[in-house]
């Protein structure tokens, strides 16, 4: 959109990530998806978005930013081994500090 492209050029605090996917249903955490309208609803899209190394933390770390993830959900075995394990890398990938 016009507003999106204007902000890319004019706002130094506006970031666009090559790979993004949120691991949260909370609005504040889901901002990249809300701003772009991109969600991986096809099988191919799901496989791409959930591949390890695509979380927003990796993008920040690559650019030299300090990273931290704060989760209201316990990052226990239900997220490392259970049915929700697909979210684990999205929540902690590329993060220097993780707090749950």
Notable characteristics:
6 helices; two-stranded parallel ribbon; 100 residues; mainly alpha
Please, could you describe this protein's structure?
With 100 residues, the protein is mainly α. The protein has helices spanning 2-10, 31-36, 43-49, 56-62, 77-80, 88-92; strands at 68-70, 97-99. The protein has a two-stranded parallel sheet with strand order 1-2. The longest helix is centred in the first third of the chain and has 9 residues, at 2-10. The mean pLDDT is 75.
Blueprint of the fold:
Elements: H1 2-10, H2 31-36, H3 43-49, H4 56-62, E1 68-70, H5 77-80, H6 88-92, E2 97-99
Parallel strand pairs: 1-2
* Order of helix and strand elements from N to C terminus: HHHHEHHE
β-strand percent reads: 5-15%
What would you call the shape? Answer: globular
Order of the strands making up the biggest sheet: 1-2
Structure, briefly:
The chain has 100 residues and is mainly alpha-helical.
């Amino acid at each position: 959109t016009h507003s999106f492209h204007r902000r890319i050029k004019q706002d130094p605090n506006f970031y666009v990530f090559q790979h993004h996917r949120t691991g949260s249903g909370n609005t504040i955490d889901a901002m990249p998806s809300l701003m772009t309208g991109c969600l991986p609803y096809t099988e191919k899209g799901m496989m791409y978005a959930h591949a390890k190394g695509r979380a927003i933390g990796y993008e920040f770390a690559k650019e030299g930013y300090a990273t931290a993830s704060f989760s209201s959900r316990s990052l226990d075995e239900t997220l490392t081994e259970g049915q929700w394990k697909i979210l684990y890398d999205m929540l902690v990938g590329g993060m220097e500090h993780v707090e749950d």
